[in-house]
Amino acid sequence: MTVLERFYEGDIRALSRIISHIENGREGYRDVLSRLYDRVGSSLRLGITGPPGAGKSTLVNCLAHRLLKQGHKVGVVAVDPTSPFTGGALLGDRVRMSDFPTDGSFYFRSMATRGASGGLANATDNVTIAYDAFGFDVTLLETVGVGQVELDIVDSCDTVAVVVVPESGDSVQTMKAGLMEIADIFCVNKSDRPGAERIISELRQMLKMRKPPEDKWSIPVVRTVATSTDGVEELEEAINKHRAHMGESGFFEKRRRYQIRKKILTVLRNRFQNEFVDRLREQGDLDQAVDEILAKKTNPFEVGDNLYRRFSA
Amino acid sequence: MTVLERFYEGDIRALSRIISHIENGREGYRDVLSRLYDRVGSSLRLGITGPPGAGKSTLVNCLAHRLLKQGHKVGVVAVDPTSPFTGGALLGDRVRMSDFPTDGSFYFRSMATRGASGGLANATDNVTIAYDAFGFDVTLLETVGVGQVELDIVDSCDTVAVVVVPESGDSVQTMKAGLMEIADIFCVNKSDRPGAERIISELRQMLKMRKPPEDKWSIPVVRTVATSTDGVEELEEAINKHRAHMGESGFFEKRRRYQIRKKILTVLRNRFQNEFVDRLREQGDLDQAVDEILAKKTNPFEVGDNLYRRFSA
Q1: Under an 8 A CB cutoff, do A290 and B260 touch?
Q2: DSSP state at residue B98
Q3: C-alpha A229: how far from chain center
Q4: Among the ranges B5-9, B162-166, B180-184, which has the highest mean pLDDT value?
Q5: Which of A145, A235, B214, B278: disulfide with A49, CB 3.0–4.6 Å?
Q6: CA distances (Å), B267 to each of B2, B118, B138, in order?
Q7: How far apart are CA A257 and CA B247, in angstroms?
Q8: Alpha-carbon distance A298 to nearest alpha carbon in chain B (angstroms)
Q9: b/e sequence B103-136, b meaning 16+ C-beta within 10 Å
């Protein structure tokens, strides 16, 4: 049996191998993705983001357990942007995976591959395609919100929960519009700590001040204490409400359409990178151009233009 | 007089306008860059990176003052990756610029533009080209090392100083090879605080263990207290030593060649993005493709492939 056949039969090790194959951009990985895509259904993609130490992993574990109990099949993908200053440990210690089922109804994958083929956001998106094709109902996508790249990732989700903690209080006021734009739900975790009321009222104040969104969704502020599972039920309810609202208003399809457009363009850019830019790098043309630039005969902008013309002729 | 003529005459406001022009990708910005490049000399580019709160801004200010006193013309560019969780304030409060000369020998620019044309690293690199063409001898490039993008930026420098503080002690052990790869100099700032000796010896230990680098440069560990300018002279000496070593060993030119190659490829990728991808986005082809994908007639990978073939025919 081929790996793909075993994948179709629900073999979790085949899933793992397929993901590695795609992630590392091994030969034929685009064909594999193409074939997986035929099986893509309507698995829900839920993004969880927030600053380091907000308790995102614990929340994700709680949600995964609840979903599994309800009979769902759940895939988790955690994106760890390998900051060299933290040794890639921004996500913190993950609760052991040993209490999760190994019967094919659950899978966890951590994305830390710096050199992921086609970029981290794209590689993560490909994992959600594999999860969907494998038959998972829900994908939980966890990422640390430390940079634009990490936020691009939640851009491929159906619902995004932004997690903050009372300690983030001072910074909430200075939060940029970008965060408001990605949040469908605010979750104040560790809400038994001092400062919780303050951050909740600040968030509500901010939400009141924003101009009414196109999709008419009113962003809820949910309070949780993930370590004792308090409020996780309410978080799940908020997620379900958002899903229902998006479906009824037609914005679910709208968002998916936007994501598909984005994916097409990413595929296109990656082909350009792999088949033109990378090959150029291997040829001698670039070295000659550098010589001429150093001799002041031309400059990188002219050279880039000329190479582009050669390509698009 | 045109802006470019005023730029050539050393008018600092013209410099500011030219940079904005390039940064925002306004009409003809590539021509402007092309013309600036003719004037590019051998301005030294010095990168300063490290975790938030390491005192990078203070260090950069100290270095700038020293260089100015020696008669150099100095440009500073600070990259602030606008994390939505910190409101783009990762760089912290900057010491007021009011004690810097306004006679055209100094300029400071902060890059926080999320939508910078062609990416943040590219936009920053373009600023260094403008500085060089303007006649600055030294460009100080300051960035927070929180993600890969921020590190790509220091990749375009001649010398990179990585700043750490005693508080980073625990994380140094888990620092990934990536940091070792970019550092030409380690600077332990706030070295009057407890834990300084420990982090210095840990760094030295790490440096001993690494395999001998191609350029045979032995990375020094310098201790500073930037707020009282202690050790800044030693840091400057280390920078000069590195510059001399690179020149003698031929690695200065090697690095510059690598950077020019990188720049050519970035220009090429940006043209592809601006002239093919962006135009495609505006046309109806994508919408039709999305319809077909939703109807399961095709998938994003096939569509991307077809579009690519159309382009590269």
Answers
A1: yes
A2: G
A3: 24
A4: B5-9
A5: A145
A6: 26, 8, 24
A7: 54
A8: 8
A9: ebbbbbbebbeeebbbbbbbbbbbbbbbbbbbbb
Sketch out chain B's domains with CATH numbers: 41-249 (3.40.50.300), 267-312 (no CATH)
Residues 6+ apart with CB under 8 A from A48: A56, A59, A60, A63, A140, A141, A142, A143, A160, A161, A163
Nearest residue to A234 (alpha-carbon basis) of A108, A72, A66:
A66
Contact B51 A301 (CB under 8 A): no
CB of B114 closer than 8 Å to CB of A204: no
Nearest to A164 by CA among A212, A210, A206: A206
Residue burial B206-216, b: 16+ Cβ < 10 Å; e: rest? beeeeeeeebe
**Model ipTM?**
0.85
User: A83: which chain B residues are within 8 Å (Cβ-Cβ)?
Assistant: 145-147
Do B132 and A300 form a contact (C-beta atoms < 8 A)?
no
Of the candidates A167, A217, A212, A214, the residue with the CA atom closest to the CA atom of residue A50: A167
Digit-coded pLDDT (tens) for A269-292: 888 888 888 778 777 788 999 999
> Quick one: CA dihedral A25, B271, A149, A215, positive or negative?
negative
pTM of the model: 0.80
Contacts of B191 (CB under 8 A, 6+ apart): B166, B200, B223, B224, B225, B230, B231
Give the other-Cβ count within 10 Å of B218's Cβ.
10
How far is residue B17's CA from residue A49's CA, in Å, rounded to a whole number?
37
The 10s digit of each residue's pLDDT in A56-111 is 989 999 999 999 999 999 999 998 765 555 444 444 445 456 688 889 999 999 88
Distance from C-alpha of A60 to C-alpha of A280, rounded to nearest angstrom: 43
Q: Which residues pair with B76 in a beta bridge?
A: B108, B140
Residues with Cβ within 8 Å of residue B264, at least 6 apart in sequence: A286, A289, A290, A300, A303, A304, A307
The answer for A250, left when phi > 0, alpha when psi is -120 to 50, beta otherwise, is: left
Query: Among A109, A124, A139, A133, which Cα is nearest to A10's?
Result: A133
**What tokens appear for B107 in the block?**
């300029």
**Rounded Cα distance, B311 and B301, in Å:** 15
Extended beta strands in B29-137, E state: 44-50, 74-79, 106-111
Q: Would you call B89 and A174 a contact, using CB atoms and an 8 Å cutoff?
A: yes
- B84–A176 C-beta distance less than 8 A: yes
Among candidate residues B260, B184, B248, B180, the one with its CA nearest the CA of residue B222: B184
Cα distance from N-terminal residue to C-terminal residue, chain A? 45
CB contact under 8 A, B277 and A265: yes
Q: Give the one of A34, A293, A311 whose C-beta lies nearest to B302's C-beta.
A: A34
Sequence-separated (6 or more) residues with CB below 8 Å from residue A277: B265, B268, B269
Q: For residues A13-39, b (16+ Cβ closer than 10 Å) or e, as one string?
A: ebbeebbebbbebeeebbebbbbbbee
Which single residue is written with the structure tokens 């790490």? Answer: B206
